[in-house]
Amino acid sequence: MPQQNNQHRFDQIKVEASPISLFETPIAYCQIKEGDELMNELEQKIRERKAADEGLRRSNIGGWHSDTEMIDWAGDAAQRLAETAVNVAKRLSHFKEASPDNYQWLVRMWANVTPSGGLNHLHTHPGNLWAAVLYLDMGDDADHPLDSVGGRFYLEDPRFPMSAMKDTSFRLMGVNGTPQQYETEMNLTRGSLVVFPAWLRHGVRVYTGERERISIAMNIDARRKA
Ligand SMILES: [Fe+2]
């Protein structure tokens, strides 16, 4: 077989390698600055709503998931958060022949309050361009490292089938010289805002802290202005 004959020789051929990275997945990993007043207001609105409304069941197991009309019931604070998230999404968006400003940006927003034992299954946000999450209260994390209370937000490599090849230990080597993982857990704190493509599968591992954890999620979409 020519291939076998050439194998040894191939080792001796000098090559100049120029690794390149293609098909990037942009993820905005932000931290809200000087936003205590805004976050306290959002938290207050969420607590009031939770006391008055039983919420929905979506990707959450355990915990309270509000309806998706938070922009209506949380007022100015929610509107400001939505505008912030849209501005981040616009920086990561490109449309052929039109500026992102030629689009009307639409946001649906809801709140999650997660007690001990709560989690979010792996999911996407179909029908949207971007998804976003803001953490207001990490629960026990202030006193305990995340490793001891769980509840980590994670993103899955959208090329997931690569990790299910014949040898499941196989990884693609990144251009930075380290193997690429098929899941990435994010290190989040109060004020962390993550904006990511809505098709990117993500979830939250089971949370075992005692205090409730509070977060806000958003769907972000855009329609070309008439
Ligand atoms: Fe989500």
Features:
single chain, globular, 226 residues, alpha+beta, 23% helix
Account of the protein in words:
The protein has 226 residues and is of the alpha+beta class. The chain has one domain: q2cbj1_9rhob like domain (Jelly Rolls, Sandwich). It contains 5 helices and 11 strands; from the N terminus they run αβαββααβββαβββββ. It has helices at 2-12, 36-52, 70-73, 75-91, 146-149, and strands spanning 28-31, 60-61, 64-65, 103-114, 119-123, 130-137, 153-156, 183-185, 192-197, 202-204, 213-224. Strands 1-9-6-11-4-3 form a 6-stranded antiparallel beta sheet. A 5-stranded antiparallel beta sheet has the order 2-5-10-7-8, with no helix packed on it. The radius of gyration is 21 Å and the shape is globular. Residues 1-6 have low confidence and may be disordered. Fe (ii) ion (FE2) is lined by residues 123, 125, 131, 202, 217.
